């Protein structure tokens, strides 16, 4: 009788130790997560430390301008703002054409800080919004991975995401773009979906719909969510893993999420009318049919169930066919079959280059190269396969979602380099799972084989606490029938007694688990070497991420730098040109340039532009492309009809800046030729090659872009040598007849020209010809010579 008393007394002690251990682990996890958030924030500040607090790239300048308007005018004026400084003479309704999530988030942060008497400028808030939300994204990654494989995998995945270069490239300080907050919303939506899937809680399902609404407000990439989750639900149904938890996780998201998404002006009825959303509705019908079948299965007899299933399946098929017919009708009525151009370019990578050159012309819409994977996710590319295998051991609803997530994100990242950003969280999650499982196996193998470890302490208490608790609960449940049987013996109590005798004790379960883990242990030397290699791999990843954050992705595109033998050179030509426009032109003057520079011109120079980075009107962009591709006189007539006063071109031939307008010129030709057939790309190519030297075609040498870029270029070195194309230009000496140069920056990167006023109008020509005729006749009559000075 003494042995049972000892084991019974040990149960509370073990329970207390496990409670203390869990409490300590929770506190430690909290502080680790806090440090991960600090790391995610600080590693993105290299751009501010090395350069200055400035907005990066092109699109962020429009977001910054909109945020400024929101903080000054208020939310109601923001929704009704008609911007007459863009897309002249058409204009743009900002409230109905922009995703407001980023702007409202930064505006709210600015308002809260000012309410607390912390007077930060709007620009400062915009610069630091992305680093702040990168910390939130790391914490959301922890929550998602924790639901899949536990706390250890969650902390590892959060650490990896905090430093992954692909995410850093879009979230450095100053990168004020939609992805700054959208990636956090994306991961958090998936995290709440998995949480609902594991718990079946309607609260988490409602919260998931709200976070999905925030994602819709922030980025057009929300369509990835509303297609990936239905794919996972359909996968669970097909593989026989349907449950009420799956229904609770999906149905509220479709209903409430779609209703909330329709409230966003830029989305509106597209939430129910475009092909990107149809898959969610179809799966919504399917899951209801399956749920009804499971419901009637529980209340009907097997015979009646067969009849009911036949009826339900028939009705369900009829409804599905009707819905599919309606969807086909809607899709057939659209020239793009209900898909947006970007979505079609994802499904068919050749679609944009064939039909929509404006999409194909964007560099971030090009497919990535293999080195870019190593640059953006580094060693994670080698850990992802191991993480996928770990997700199958065992395969759960949550782990199957991670596998589906990584598979789809790998495909989309291979189509468009911009979507490497979507791959980064999936790669971090699977790599975190792989590293966590590997460290678990290696450390356990080393612990099992350390000398001096007793047989009773071979099993880690943390690993076996759940098994011990489970066995202890079984003992407690089995003891209760024994007590009842003493008072009132019955058949059920006797049966439970027999089951209790057959069940193994808690110690037996722990020993069985320990024996199984001992069989999975690796040799001590192999475990130690493998653990060292994993640590070195992690160190290499950290070094690469810090280098990418400090050197590759910290430089703002508006301020360029170059390291030479004489030291660091800074090229601030963009801001120099925009400052000249702001201070030397009238407020109502219109500036024409290629669409890449529209947002910056409007935000920094405060001047009206013809086209900008929104690219919503292909015809308007084609008009500018046609003007740049045309001879000088024809280009002057096009710009004059648009009331353009100044033309801005970017030229990198002097300093070797490769992203100039000459390198982008063929896209101008293709886009212009797509609308105006007289512009033909072969006219600008010599034997299929794009040349600007003496072998260039006459059409190329006489077009406006060539003249505005290379005007007076021969005066720089006497040879007119282009450092980007690495050749001397073909036409060195020429004059401009309809344009005049008004400003060229210090390094010749930005050149601004002014349209000359029209010289000889029709009325003036008529009067002049009449005066000439009258003077000639009078001179003939008088017989005197014409005065040459009159």
Automatic annotation (TrEMBL):
Subcellular location, record wording:
Endomembrane system
Residue ranges of the Oligosaccharyl transferase STT3 N-terminal domain? 27-429
Q: Where is this region: Disordered?
A: 455-510, 760-790
Which parts of the chain span the membrane according to its record? 23-43, 93-113, 125-144, 150-168, 180-205, 211-235, 247-272, 278-296, 308-332, 373-393, 400-417, 519-543
Major place of localization?
membrane
Report the pathway entry.
Protein modification; protein glycosylation
The record's section on PANTHER family has:
DOLICHYL-DIPHOSPHOOLIGOSACCHARIDE--PROTEIN GLYCOSYLTRANSFERASE SUBUNIT (PTHR13872), DOLICHYL-DIPHOSPHOOLIGOSACCHARIDE--PROTEIN GLYCOSYLTRANSFERASE SUBUNIT STT3A (PTHR13872:SF48)
What name does this protein carry?
A: dolichyl-diphosphooligosaccharide--protein glycotransferase
Which organism does this record belong to?
Hibiscus sabdariffa
Q: Lineage of the native species?
A: Eukaryota, Viridiplantae, Streptophyta, Embryophyta, Tracheophyta
